[in-house]
Design brief:
about 230 residues; alpha/beta; eight-stranded parallel sheet; 9 helices; 8 strands; binds pyridoxal-5'-phosphate
Length: about 230
């Protein structure tokens, strides 16, 4: 078995056991393989090992990789998730090439994505990124402003508002990790209570996915545990 096969098996096993520990079903959590900084060959290896959903942070790098992967495995249905910061001059290419965007934090960006989503494609799946840890420098919308943004985005025609995403400050201890994810789950439950049909909590990475799953994550975004450490972010 190749390294990527082994790593995928190990990560899938961790996801299944954390789900079980939390009393959740075996398919409650989806694995998003974060392939940023890794080449198309690495993605192809993961696809051959059965992985279908990939997360990318850098637009040009992602587009180059998608083209190589599509040429090597024509007709293989893959799902591409944009998980990096979004500049407004990049929205068109994101709207044309991705299935999901996890990092929407402003109405203007959401409007552009909706306007620029090609008509033949399904609505673009959206998670709103929330700044749950409150530092001024961090990206994500402030919790106090989330409900207004969520209702605006839910009304846009070519987007499907699916849920929330956060990247809390790294914490070493399991209980601290859980506590860092809890505010996002509470916000998610509030929005659902207010009538928004959300089904996605995108939280947890290689170092804290178990805590995220116990707190209700439905997508974990995992890079280094699958592909090894990165030379750059
Ligand atoms: C890089 C990245 C990840 C994956 O991080 P790992 O620690 O390598 O698992 C997840 N989410 C986002 C938004 C990222 O930028």
């Amino acid at each position: 078995m190749s390294t990527i096969d082994q790593n995928l098996q190990a990560v899938r096993h961790s996801i299944a056991s954390a789900s079980c520990e939390a009393g959740r079903g075996p398919h409650a959590v989806k694995l998003l393989a974060v392939s940023k900084t890794f080449g198309a060959d690495v993605v192809l290896g993961a696809v051959r090992a059965g992985q279908t959903a990939f997360g990318e942070n850098y637009l040009q790098e992602a587009l180059d990789k998608m083209a190589v992967v599509a040429a090597a495995l024509p007709g293989t249905p893959l799902e591409w998730h944009f998980i990096g910061p979004i500049q407004s001059n990049k929205t068109r290419l994101i709207a044309e090439h991705f299935d999901w965007v996890h990092t929407v934090e402003r109405e203007k960006i959401a409007q552009r994505l909706s306007e620029q989503r090609p008509l033949g494609l399904a609505p673009l799946n959206i998670c709103l990124q929330v700044n749950t840890s409150g530092e001024i420098s961090k990206s994500g919308i402030a919790p106090a402003e989330l409900a207004a943004l969520a209702h605006q985005v839910a009304a846009l025609p070519n987007l499907a508002l699916r849920g929330l995403m956060a990247i809390p400050e790294p914490a070493l201890k399991f209980e601290q990790q859980r506590a860092a994810f809890r505010p996002l789950r509470l916000l998610y439950e509030q929005l659902r209570g207010a009538g928004l049909a959300l089904d996605t909590l995108s939280m947890g990475m290689s170092a804290d996915m178990r805590a995220a799953i116990v707190e209700g994550a439905t997508i974990v975004r995992v890079g280094s545990a699958l592909f090894g450490s990165r030379d750059y972010q």
